Amino acid sequence: MPRRRKSVTKDKPLPKGMKIACPGRHSTDEVIAIFVSAVHELKARNIKHIAGLNIYFTPIDRHGRPLTHFPDGAKIPGSTVTLDRPYKSAAEEHGL
Questions:
Q1: Phi and psi of 21, rounded to 5°?
Q2: How far is CA 66 from CA 4, 7, 9, 26, 69, in A?
Q3: What is the C-alpha separation between 90 and 92, in angstroms, rounded?
Q4: Model confidence at 4, in pLDDT bands (50, 70, 90)?
Q5: 31-63 pLDDT tens trace
Q6: What's the chain's average pLDDT?
Q7: Degrees (nearest 5) of the Cα angle 30, 79, 89?
Q8: Which of 20, 32, 44, 96 could be 91's S-S partner, Cβ–Cβ 3.0 to 4.6 Å?
């Protein structure tokens, strides 16, 4: 039976992460483009893997006022929302 590799985080804490900032007001379409550009920048610097990802934002209305509720009336959570992986790759789906 192969030995399991120890997690880096159990052996020692990870170094402080990188911060990619883009100040100002942006539409959701602009945020998508900014995020894609940031990932392309990491790839251009030959970074192939990332441990953890935190995205902080303040949802605002068209006048720049912070939103407290979604358009459907649901309250915007003030705490962390944790998402699973967005989807499995085709290779993962086929066990490759």
A1: -110, 145
A2: 46, 39, 36, 13, 9
A3: 5
A4: low
A5: 999 989 988 999 999 998 888 788 888 889 889
A6: 81
A7: 55
A8: 96
- In the numeric block, the tokens 């159990």 are attached to 10
* Torsion angle (degrees, nearest 10) of CA 22, 27, 29, 34: 0
Residue with tokens 């605002």: 60
Q: Buried (b) or exposed (e) across 34-61, using 16+ Cβ within 10 A?
A: eeeeeeeeeeeeeeeeeeeeeeeeeeee
- With CA atoms as reference, report the closest residue to 41 among 15, 22, 16: 22
* pTM over cut 0.70: no
Closest CA to 68 of 79, 78, 76, 57: 76
Tokens of 15: 């170094």
Structure tokens at 13: 């804490």
Amino acid residing at 2:
P
